[in-house]
Amino acid sequence: MALASCGKDGRADIPPPSPALWHVTAPDGRSAGWLFGTIHALPEDARWRTPAIEKAIVDADLLVVEAKDLEDTGKLAATFTRLSHTPEQPALSERVPASLQDRLRRLLAKGGYREADFKAIETWAAAIMLAQLADDSIGENGVDRALLKDFKARPVEELEGVEGQFRIFDTLPEADQRDLLGAVVEEDTMDASDSARLAKLWLKGDMDAIAREGDEGMLADPELKQALLINRNRLWADKLLALYAAGKRPLVAVGAAHLAPPEGLPELLAAKGYRVSRVR
C-alpha cells in the first residue's frame, strides 16, 4: 500500500525507464534468478520495459509474485467478504482519533458511504475499502498484471496468495488495525502530484527515495512496518532460498518497497551468502 497508487495525471516529464532490477548469484557461482520491484499502476503512456528486464523475462524459469489471481475479481471479493465481516463492530468514528473524525466524515461522503455501512466490517477491512477512494490509478496498467500475461504459458508461483495477504491484515491486533485506519484517513490528502512523483521514483529505480517513502505514512508506525513489510520480507526470503536450492531461476516480482534497504530482499539474501547485483 505504500507505493500502491500512481495517478493518471502528471504524464509530462516521465523519465526514461530504469526500474530496479537485481541479478541473484548463488554462493557456488550459479545464476539463481532476478529480483524486480514492481508498482501496481502507471500513467497510460509510461514505458517501463528495458532490455535487461525483457531478458530476465525470457531467461527466467518461472515467475514468483505476491499473489497471482489478480484478475479473479470474484475470488478477491468472496475472500475479502469472508474474512472482513464480524457483527457488532464499534462505530467507525470510534475507531479513529478525535482529531481525524472530520476527515473521516469527508472521506465517507467522498465514497458515498454511511457510517452504518461499516457496522459489521472489521477495522483493517474498512481501512482497505477507504484506501481505494484515494487511489485514482489504472490497475490495468500495472506491472504485475503485465508480467502475469508474459508468463501465461509458464509456471507462476505466489508467495502469499489473495487469502494470505488479507490474513496479514486480519490478524493484526485491533490497536494496529486502528493505526492503519487512521493512516488511511490522514493520507487521503495525497494529490495527483504526489502520485506522479512516486511513479517517477519507481521509473528511475531510486531505491533510496523509495526507502524514505517507507518511513512515512502508515509505515512510520513501527508495529505496522514490522507486520506489513519486515516480517513478510523474512518469510519471502526463506521461500526464495528453497526455490534456489531446488535449482530454480525465478523472476521475483514484488512491490518495490519490499526491495528497499535496509531490510529488503536484496539485503536478506546477501546475508545468506548470495550475491545480489543491481542490473543497470
UniProtKB/TrEMBL annotation:
Pfam families: TraB_PrgY_gumN
Protein name, UniProt field: TraB family protein
PANTHER family registered for this protein in UniProt: CYTOPLASMIC PROTEIN (PTHR40590:SF1), CYTOPLASMIC PROTEIN-RELATED (PTHR40590)
InterPro entries on file: TraB/PrgY/GumN_fam, YbaP-like
